Amino acid sequence: MQGLSWVNLLIVLIAVLLLTKPLGRYIDRVFNGQRTFLWPLLGRVERLAYRCCGIDPTVEMPWSGYALSALALGAASAGALYVILRVQQWLPLNPQHFANLTPDVAFNAAISFATTTDWQVYSGENALSYFSQMAGIVPAMFAASATGLALAIGFIRGLARSEAQTLGNFWVDLIRSVLYVMLPLSVVGALLYVSQGVPQNFHAYADAVNPEGFKQAITGGPMGSETIIELLGGNGGGFVGANAASPNENPTALCNFLELLTMLLIPAALTNTFGRMVGDARQGWILFGAMSALLVGGAVTAQVAESHGNSAIVALGVNGPNWEGKEVRFGPASAGLSVAVATATGNGAANATYDSLMPVADLVALANMQTSEVIFGGVGSGLYGMLVYAVLTVFIAGLMVGRTPEYLGKKIERREVQFAMLSVLAFALAVLVPAAIASVSRAGVAVLGNDGPHGFAEIIYAFTSTSANNGSAMAGLGSNLFYNLMTAAAMLAGRFGPVIPTMALAGTLALQVKSVRLSRGSFRTDTFMFGALLLGVVVIVGALTFLPADLLGPIVEQAMIVHPH
Amino acid sequence: MKNHLVPAILFTLFSVIALGIVYPLVMTGISVLIFPAQANGSPVTVNGKLVGSSIIGQLWTKPQYFHGRPSAAGKGYDPTSTGGTNLAPTSKKLIEATRAAIVALKKENPDAKGPIPMDLITSSASGIDPDISVEGAYYQVPRIAKARGLAPATVYTLVDRQAQGRTLGFLGEPRVNVLELNLSLDGAKS
Q1: Same structural domain, B134 and B58
Q2: Which residues constitute the domain of residue B14?
Q3: Least Cα separation, residue A314 to chain B (angstroms)
């Protein structure tokens, strides 16, 4: 069984590799304003969107325009979702007659979906009307993930342009992201999911009675159209509580494979888009390589941990891998792979329960998020996060070997490094400060689902996941007012804290003259050596920041399993 | 900031209509047309009555039917309250619950042969797992054969006929859909 999960990993990687170049090229064309094959169909809609939103597509913006527009859209999108969730009982398409959400739950959800986090303190199947799902959650998912993509494109232009005041137009990039990238892929993907059995209807729950007389409500809803953008956009909020573990959202092993691909698709392609936009495809492949190496490392570790099984259960006389919290159609080893991919790509969509994972697999999930989601990462946010690390790597390499710190013809000096470090620190603070408060407050420990180091792991996981805008959870952790407000704060700080210095960095880079020729003294960034260094910097920054906290959680728990007494 | 808020609000309104209403409705229309059974939730009917969905597991307790896995969804297999136990591998509650599940399984299946399949004593992630492992089905065959007065070989054959291998030879685990298996049992009896 373990052998076949390697095949699974390998085929996922090959598929991603094959799709990266064509999709990367397509995305590059979209943002260069070139006409793609979808233009005859969508060009009209694009112009309509500009007119509806009062946008002049010819006007360009400085970095601050990108950052402020992203903030404004986050606020508007969260506001709309909040209102819908608070009045859903009076709106149509609510066949189960669900009540309005309470203010704190609606607030948490609104922030959550506006930041691509999709942390969920409700279960959709018993709390959200179909209208709230389709007209509340779905547009918020599109807007949040397209925001990430637009910001990434702006950031890349900062590196590609010379002596430029502006990075492009945020709204043009946003609308193109939605129309030419997210929407067409969603239409195709949703149909593929439905073909596998993901429901797409507006039925009220149907009453079934099986031959034994067991009564069951068969749930429904427009699940396919939501599940696709959930996964494609690095969002991860499920239509139902069990998310990608539920047979509603992930009915077959083939569907699970498609969902893995969906999660990796755009973040991987963007490395190629980046290479094209800066005029050197190799630069993109170096990032792709570093990301893949980190992903494979995590996936292999998680697969081994889950296949190995829980010695406490084996002690009861039953042999086998860790089946607790896994679905039969996927199996434990492949769940290990899914955990690694979902946590690496900013997706909260879990096909297993993370609380019941082996501690080592939990550690993989934590590590993937604690590198601030740059192992492919969220749509756009993964790429600009990785480019911030690339700037730091260039600087560190410069210090080590006495070369001029230069990235893609741009000098990396004091201002650039300051902005890059601010971005890294904003994320670390967003995780550690609320986690520390939760660990010592009564409200913070009141709703833990498990005791001991695992309980602490639940806290650190909650704030890592929300700050990294991942959204997966060790779901044993209950919700209360404290967590609803604290995680909302972490989501905002984790999303917009890094966005502002990151875009400021792009702004200063754009202002510089781009030196075309590599001087002899500069350190090459299109080499294997640079990829390895970059990987090292990502791991070291993450480990130095978070290892002490992880030590008290999953690492102690693993030690307890190895030495039960 | 006003310059940024106006397009933000207008875009949000535009997206609620285009992506929140038009897109899901169009997708529903196409889905119902091309994949009617799947889009409607893969319903399973017997004599015109809805008995369940082929993608959603159910609670089975009588000896003459195959049983699914332990479930943490509501009172068991409740699709309106999906989820797992969320118990940690080191949790005392988990060990106790698993020990109890082993005792109960052995009591239900006194004539079972071979080792206990892990999936039958652990809860799924969704709580509505529609499948059990092929070993999990084999394990229950002696009980079912006895309760129905069938030859075990007949029931084993039925399991083999319903069993699905790994998709494309490498995806997922070999499995049996419990509802479909039980319906075919009833068919075999009559």
Answers
A1: yes
A2: 2-36
A3: 9
